[in-house]
Amino acid sequence: MVDRPLRVAVLASGRGSNLAALIAARLQVDFVLVGSDKAKAGALALAAAAGIPTLHLNPRDYADRASFDRALFGRVAEAQPDLLVLAGYMRIIDGTVIAPWEGRAINIHPSLLPKYRGLHTHRQCLAAGDAEHGASVHFVTAELDGGPVVAQARIPVGADDTEETLAARLLTREHALLPAVVRAIASGRLAWQGGPVFDGTPLTAPLDLTALR
Q1: Which residue, 60, 121, 163, 195, could crosslink 111 as a Cys pair with Cβ 3.0–4.6 Å?
Q2: pTM attached to this predicted model
Q3: Backbone angles phi, psi at 193, to 5 degrees
Q4: Is the predicted pLDDT of residue 2 greater than 70, yes or no?
């Protein structure tokens, strides 16, 4: 068990539905910052309404991706988070910038990794004729959507599903999965010790949602 609330920073690019789920979960954490690459991101408005400090940096103000990432992550580091959560953050992060965050940053991705890294995961799932779809939370590494997966939530794919219906049904599962993972980290059950461990045992397969309740 940690002796103080986990300090959590969040990066998001969009409306912030996963951030809203984290806030609504009433986790025993301190949200120290919500940052975005989009000035009008809904996540920033949600954070401000909840009294969480916010940050926006415009990528166009920087010479290249690495310069932007160094500036953004430098500002995130100033908030001294124990954990960084990428909750719908849509930019690929420079590998040299993310490397120092190994074991301290997680991302939620709408596929059953290692399937369908990157974008258009629902479309790829349907095109492949998969019987199930899902979401994954993984520790972030320099490899795009390639870090160790710690937990997944699964849904069946219906014969009539479209990208939109599949995305909508999966989103409700994401909104349960991400807070469950952050709760497990905050309680000390899920930790990084050269790799993910749960209740002191190295993970050999992703946890399911019920194991994290």
Answers
A1: 121
A2: 0.96
A3: -135, 70
A4: no
